[in-house]
Amino acid sequence: MAPEEDAMPEQKQDVPTPVRAVALVCTLEPSPAESSTQLLTDQVLEALRGHGVECRSVRVVDHDVKPGVEKDMGPGDAWPDIRRRILAANILVLATPTWMGQHSSVCQRVLERLDAELSETDDEGRLLTYGKVAVGVVVGNEDGAHHITGILFQALNDVGFTVPAQGVTYWHDDVKGEYRDYKDLPSAPAGVLETNRTVARHAAHLARLLRHQPYPAG
């Protein structure tokens, strides 16, 4: 009887790290209240999952994010944990409702806390946000989407994020329409869903490019 052949050693295969996205939902409505901002964000995350992106969502108002421009504002500050989620992700989805033609106060606080990233660099002097993609979600029953988008894009780019082409999706009610809230629509408008898919496709593509070809050090 022939001796058994030695078993071949198990080959370890390199499993690529998945692209990850975290959404910061800046609705003023705490959980578990329904939110148009949450709904539109969830639709964008679903589109991202279609490109193999792992997605998580944080409703910021549910957490005690202290005012300030430091990465940690002391005892009880929930921002350090949220910040860890941002730094662990490749894509940031920043979502805000529209109030009085402006982004929400919660969204403004997020932008202010992100200002701390200007002081955080890697060993080669690059901001830790370099190589991360950011996209926007804006929703409301009044005008202001382009104004808010301009603020989001400028602020996010200032602190090191890269915004892809057509990097925002939004819905604003036509005052003549029957529905004043996105969550009350009988179905999502085809144009919004198509924009969601474009945002997701471009964000996933750019995130993968930047992960494999990071920005050069200065």
TrEMBL record:
Signal peptide annotation: none
Domain of life of the organism encoding this protein: Bacteria
Gene3D superfamilies: 3.40.50.360
InterPro entries: Flavoprotein-like_sf, FMN_Rdtase-like_dom
Protein known as: NADPH-dependent FMN reductase-like domain-containing protein
Gene Ontology MF term list: oxidoreductase activity
Pfam families per record: FMN_red
Residues covered by the NADPH-dependent FMN reductase-like domain: 31-168
